[in-house]
Amino acid sequence: MHDTLVLAAGCVLWRVSPSDDTLRICLVHRPKYDDWSHPKGKLKRHEDALTGALREVVEETGYRAVPGTELTTLRYQVGDRPKEVRYWAAEALTGGFVPNREVDRILWLTPDEARTRLTQPRDADLVDALVRTLERA
Predict the structure, then answer these.
(1) Model confidence, pTM
(2) Residue of 33, 37, 43, 103 with fewest CB within 10 Å of its CB?
(3) Using CA of residue 131, residue 36, residue 78, residue 65, what is the dihedral sign?
């Protein structure tokens, strides 16, 4: 039994749609797991969580982002190991997606579409947290 905590970080990546000025959230599709999720990944040794979250966004989506409010931290089991993933709201700036080994597709969805598309129900809570954060801004 391994009980070493896996530390990870990610972002709920968002932008305002250039076509209709609505909020869009970026979800990534990972073919290895055939799932839709927010961009996230394990932290490198000695890497702080926010740096890791922004690195994962670039690696998985091709977009640089400006971090905003820290959102919910999710805790769950992966196999026999506990995992903790810290998330931030992050506004997409420049960049563009190129399919890679880890992520083969991304989608920019409305909050309602994102909630429905996400594979893990726990990830939908992050959409709600982002919407609340942006409404307060």
Answers:
(1) 0.94
(2) 33
(3) negative
Nearest to 49 by CA among 92, 5, 115, 2: 5
Measured distance between the N- and C-terminal CA atoms of the chain, rounded to whole angstroms: 44
Residue 99 CB-half CA count within 13 A: 6
Other C-beta atoms lying within 10 Å of the C-beta of residue 22: 9
All structural domains of the chain with their residue ranges: 6-136
CA–CA distance, 68 with 135 (Å, rounded to integer): 13
DSSP 8-state secondary structure symbol assigned to residue 5: P
By residue count, the chain amounts to: 137
Give the tokens for residue 106.
Answer: 């991304």
84-123, pLDDT tens digit by residue? 999 999 999 999 999 999 999 999 999 999 999 999 999 9
pLDDT value at 32 more than 90: yes
Q: Is the sign of the CA dihedral 17, 116, 56, 31 positive or negative?
A: negative
CATH class of 6-136: alpha beta
